[in-house]
Design brief:
The chain has about 250 residues and is of the alpha+beta class. About 15% of the residues lie in helices and about 45% in strands. The strands form three sheets. Strands 1, 3, 4, 5, 8, 9, 10, 11, 13 and 14 form a ten-stranded mixed sheet that branches. Strands 2-12 form a two-stranded antiparallel sheet. Strand 8 and strand 9 form a beta hairpin. The protein is globular and about 55 Å long. The relative contact order is 0.24.
């Protein structure tokens, strides 16, 4: 599964184009939206036994109406490994993406996507270590304190092939807006390991995310901090080139 082909991220680029945001930019440089990094605290990892497996910046580039748009996102994955069972028994992924404000409205598709949509989108194109996670069913809602906010946590169950066996897993999905970014997290563990829930919830509450206190919209021209100019004429949102994406591992 590859974030660079994520439906939501590609949709984000399309929204930027069709919303008329490209009409705000003049000059030769691309319009850049950058999310801040997201991670989980050392205290939460030590308490739960999770370890970071991957952190990367995911860059989606699109040429729209002859102009270049670049959306920078951050992704990290954490896993808990059982040395005795020699299996991964818990996974948490966190993703940050800029909310992309146009005329004061958030246009990033992740902002209003249903939790079921988040599960289907994010788990279908990324290696979760649990194999395929399809047909997830919402069974209950819980609450966790994520980045200082009371956040809804949707709890889903689904079956997957794991370690050569059919196993039921529980998934925990949450989303908060923090600063100029949208932060999404999905954790999971085999249902037969009830202690996994407490560990995943602790990881959710240990999420850390940087914010830029000096910017109301993390939008700038590449190569400088000059504000975007407002175009007085009509705008169009027709994509004129292919989308390219780059994942840079950190």
């Amino acid at each position: 599964m590859d974030w660079t082909r994520s439906v939501g991220v590609v949709a984000l680029v399309v929204v930027v184009a069709t919303s008329g945001c490209i009409g705000f930019v003049t000059g030769e440089e691309p319009l850049v939206y950058e999310a801040n990094q997201v991670s989980v605290s050392d205290d939460a990892k030590q308490a739960t036994g999770y370890e970071q497996q991957l952190r990367e910046e995911v860059v989606v580039n699109q040429t729209v109406s002859g102009r270049d748009v670049s959306v920078h996102n951050w992704y990290a994955r954490y896993e808990k490994y059982d040395d005795i069972a020699e299996e991964t028994t818990g996974v948490l992924t966190v993703f940050s993406t800029h909310r992309v404000d146009v005329f004061g409205h958030t246009t990033n598709p992740y902002a209003n996507m249903s939790y079921s949509g988040l599960v289907a989108n994010l788990t279908s194109e990324r290696d979760t270590s649990f194999g395929s996670l399809e047909d997830a069913t919402l069974v209950e809602n819980e609450t966790a304190t994520v980045l200082g906010q009371d956040a809804r946590v949707g709890v889903f169950t689904t079956n997957t092939t794991f370690g050569g066996e059919q196993v039921q897993v529980r998934l925990y999905v949450t989303r908060v807006q923090h600063g100029d970014d949208i932060v999404v997290a999905i954790g999971g563990h085999p249902t037969k390991l009830p202690a996994g829930e407490q560990e995943v919830m602790a990881m959710l509450e240990g999420i850390e995310h940087e914010t830029d206190e000096n910017a109301t919209a993390n939008e700038r021209l590449a190569g400088g901090d000059a504000p975007a100019a407002v175009a007085s004429g009509p705008t169009t949102g027709v994509a004129s080139g292919p989308t390219t994406s780059v994942a840079r591992e950190i």
